[in-house]
Amino acid sequence: MSMSTSLRFLGAAQNVTGSCYLVEHEGRRVLVDCGLYQERNYRERNWAPFAVRPESIDTVLLTHAHLDHCGLLPKLVREGFNGPIYCTPATGEITRIVLLDSARIQEEDAQSKRRRHEREGRKGPYPEQPLYTEEDAERTLPLFRKVGYGEPTTIGEGISASFHEAGHILGSAMIRLQVAGSTGESRSIVFSGDIGQWDKPIIEDPTMFKDADYLVMESTYGDRSHEDPGEIDQLLADGVNETHQAGGNLLIPSFALERTQEVLYYLNRLLREGRIPHLMVFVDSPMAIGVTEVFKNHPELFDDPMQDLMKAGHSPFSFSGLKLIRSVDQSKAINHIRGTSIIIAGSGMCTGGRIKHHLVHNISRPESTILFVGYQAEGTLGREILSGAKEVRIMGQMRKRRARIRRINGFSAHADQPGLLRWLGDLRKPPRKLFLTHGEAEAIRVLSEKIQQARGWRPYVPEYGETVGVH
What is the CATH number of domain 229-407? Predict the structure, then answer.
């Protein structure tokens, strides 16, 4: 094949976050994702100059609205990118909320560092600058171009892209890129984005492909299987009922995007089935409330059971006893309510946000329960509590942990190892190259071995910064 095409791995190569791939075709540059690094040992990459000049990039394609896929877009724009950013309509709406929130946190972090250095008597000027500002995020938003699932979009001469349901979060997509040379030959590159689970509530199942010349596939849970999602109902009901009997509050640290909406879905179902008492349910997160509004705006993305629920008037986003808390004063008032309440608040790993204030009031109460529904990374307050620490530091003070600790693992939005192998199941022939990215070394190694056993294909594990030719 004579055309000049290459694929460069600029992020999520042998690690989980910072998703970013550069496709160069006949002089045009297309970036797929532009994500923030969240692992401690890779965070300095967020500050490094981009591998190519941002103004030389023609187009960005965005798989979904998680920060590790979209979180460096404001920096890219501030440093010169001015082309279109293509994504699905729901991704565009959620990314707006996520980027403005991220920018606010970047600015607050820089400000608190400056204050700390001033207190420590360090001489100015202070170098602490935010990675990007709310103004940078605002300048990014007009560049978004929204495209529906399955609509082929020409993004340059000889390059077209189509977006396909990923089943991961609302609006999430797998991207199929078709590149064609001047003599008519063409190649397809499929980017999996984050692959969701099958038979999850609310959204549709992941798309499967019959053919792809090149495949860039995530491998986050390539070395494990999730617990049976059927256990979620019972575990959640047990957590609510035992806390109600004890007379405490049930705290659920939750991510604003997808996880909060899924918890509401299950609580609503348990209420309708009479398996839990009618209690006050507070969603104490302006960001989660904003994302929930996007869900309400896109019923066309719901799966059949969710569509049926909505038609029957059983929306999990507006049931009796559900209160959406926007202001700080409303949030503080929750702690004066007598009896049992269910409080869903961010952040999901207890690293910041309103959950910390609720922990202050509940962590030392034996009658209260802290229920974890998401992954707790090493080095976070959530991990410390989950690991059984008898005492933890919250908001500058050591506090005894007397509350019950519970955990539900089945909520993950990522496919596990059987799911990842299933996703490859419709391919009629092996791709020219199957690249494994977006996973830690052990997850990639185990998944690679499983693929070789199951399909006889030998996956390729690219290194950070590596360029591979597309032939």
Answer: 3.40.50.10890
Arithmetic mean of pLDDT, 221-235: 89
433 vs 458: CA distance, rounded Å: 8
Question: What fold does the segment set 5-224+414-469 form as a domain?
Answer: Metallo-beta-lactamase; Chain A (3.60.15)
Instruction: Specify the pTM.
Output: 0.93
- Confidence at residue 384, expressed as pLDDT on a 0 to 100 scale: 93
Q: Where are the domains of the chain?
A: 5-224+414-469, 229-407
| CB-CB contact of 158 with 2 (8 Å) | no
Tokens of 252: 């659920």
For 128-151, what is each residue's pLDDT tens digit?
789 999 999 999 999 999 999 999
Q: Are 254 and 263 in contact (CB under 8 A)?
A: yes
Q: How many whole angstroms separate alpha carbon 59 and alpha carbon 79?
A: 15
Radius of gyration of the chain (CA): 23
